[in-house]
Design goal:
The chain has 289 residues and is α+β, with helices and mostly antiparallel strands. The chain has a domain of 131 residues. It is 35% helix and 11% strand. The chain contains eight helices and six strands. The chain has a two-stranded antiparallel ribbon with strand order 1-4. A two-stranded antiparallel sheet has the order 2-3. Helix 2 crosses helix 4. The longest helix has 29 residues. The protein is extended and about 75 Å long. The model has no long low-confidence stretch (mean pLDDT 83).
Length: 289
């Protein structure tokens, strides 16, 4: 009994010596202090508060515009407008993800009817280089669980971003690859001088966001306030003609977003929804990297 009491006392002394907070509430200790990183070519806009609503004397006494104090948090803003080159990075990423998704599905479909060789190995190369990434072989237990329970043939699986996309038709590796690329380019009847370009109607970006304001006011299940958006993100390149009817803007209309000489000029023809999608993609890109 005495040995047990002495052992308990030693354990208590050991743990008390290992902590220097003396039993005081000092908060959760972090291993590394966090410092705000200044984003590239952005400036900090300081936060503050202001009075929103009618501020003059309400003679009639209708009280239809009551005032309230609104607080705005500090935020970062770009020093200059988003350029054509910067927005093109978003457009090209969406384009590449669409192409890789189509190629991966076609690789899955082509692999279903493939005949193994004498060693029982399925053919490789060609479009098979673009099939969905095999995350099971060297995956963590968490990745294996997510793959087995949530990924299926009808959902987007991890894409293979390691293989370069082949854009020159003379270098297309096989018929399946040609079939995919043919479906993503404009029809031959719409091509000018026989040059078929990527069909911009396929440049659709899908993302989700949580409506915190409505969730706070109404309450309920979280899933009811998760909003999913799917929209085409290619800018309207005809604004130079539609918005300026009597000005000579034909060169801008033809080359502004396309030609590299306008790469550092501000992007135009972008809607609020497209700008919001761009910000979503930019945030995820920064988070992942």
């Amino acid at each position: 009994m005495k040995k047990a009491a002495i052992f308990a006392l030693l354990i208590t002394v050991f743990y008390s010596c290992g902590s220097n907070d003396r039993g005081e509430l000092v908060g959760v200790k972090v291993k590394k202090k966090w410092f705000s990183e200044k984003p590239h070519e952005m400036v900090l806009v300081p936060g503050g508060s202001f009075t929103m609503g009618k501020q003059d004397e309400d003679v009639v006494g209708t009280m239809n515009t009551p005032t309230k104090t609104v607080t705005v948090r500090p935020y970062y803003m770009d020093e200059t407008e988003i350029t054509n080159n910067e927005y093109k990075a978003f457009v090209n990423w969406v384009r590449d993800s669409v192409v890789r998704t189509k190629l991966a599905y076609q690789a899955e479909f082509a692999g279903l009817g493939a005949t193994p060789n004498a060693n029982g190995v399925l053919p490789s190369g060609g479009i098979q280089n673009y099939k969905f990434k095999d995350t099971v072989a060297n995956a963590t237990p968490y990745q294996k669980y997510m793959y087995e329970n949530y990924y299926s043939f009808d959902t987007i699986q991890p894409l293979n971003w390691d293989e370069e996309i082949i854009w020159k038709k003379e270098e297309f590796p096989d018929v399946d690859y040609v079939e995919v690329m043919d479906s993503l380019f404009i029809d031959r009847e719409e091509a000018v001088d026989g040059i078929r370009t990527f069909n911009t109607k396929f440049l659709n970006y899908k993302y989700s966001w949580f409506d915190r304001d409505n969730a706070a006011r109404k309450g309920g299940n979280r899933k009811d306030f998760v909003q999913t958006e799917v929209l085409n993100i290619y800018p309207d390149t005809t604004v130079w003609v539609k918005d300026f009817n009597y000005s000579y803007n034909d060169p801008m209309h033809q080359d502004y977003f396309y030609h590299q000489s306008y790469g550092d000029y501000p992007v135009v023809g972008v809607t609020w929804e497209q700008a919001n999608a761009f910000c979503n993609w930019r945030t995820k890109r920064k988070t992942i990297i």
